[in-house]
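Bumping with the actual sequence this time:
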Amino acid sequence: LNNIGQLTPTTQDEAGITYAKKLSKDEERYEKFIAEYNRPLKEGVYQDYVNKDALLELVRYKSTNDDKKMTSLADYKQRADSEQKAIYYIVGEDEAVLRNSPLLEAYKKNNIEVLICDDKEIDEVITPAIGAYKDWSFKDITSCEAPKTEQSEEEQKEVEAEFKSIVEKIKDTLGDAVKDVKTTNRLSDSPSCVVKDPNDPMAQMAAMMKSMGQEVPESAPILEINPDHDIVKKLNGTPDDTLVETVSWLLLDQAKMAEGLEIKDPIAFTKRLNKVINKSF
């Protein structure tokens, strides 16, 4: 490891890549290497098209499969179900926040591994740009459809009809703070979550703009509510419009906080929370 600096992908040194491959067979030594050079390897994947495939074999990711050991993409693919044809990931700044994201609930339920990308500065630019690994596309769980559920299309329509009124009330209350409000079957324990609109042109351009050092305009999220959660069920049946307004904002703010996103008015959040707590006594 005396010449480890020569192994960074920015050198585009094929000899260095070959040496790194050999080093990867020694788990203990490779862990030390990855601790120092995983980020340059990712940058190499983005910058060095010629050696992209070789570098993808060397990069390691944190994942929901193991909270201590990192994984290669090859091992991720090997562990996946035969019907799975994508590599799922979530990007953010805090590993603990990402591992506890409500968006992971459907993936855990379906035993689908998700890569934890907590180096947001580069991961949100580089990971979408990878495109695919051995014909498996990379999918951001904050903007893609949730994995399969036991709910039929007919049952889904029944749920949408049952909660149509409260969905419209929440949407009217939140206004421009959300792009849309809808029921979801991606949640198990949480009452709500926020996701990106994959069809939003700004969302599609975000990675490109960030890579160019440009500021990305904030896009309003889609708020999804869990019709099986007691809070949503009770909200759907209450005639108290003031309570609906208060809880609507709480559902949005807590969903954003769960994803490590900033809420615009922490003081208003605290007041609303205290109001609801006071009603519970």
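The tokens above came from a reply further down the thread. The CA atoms of residues 18 and 184 lie 47 Å apart.
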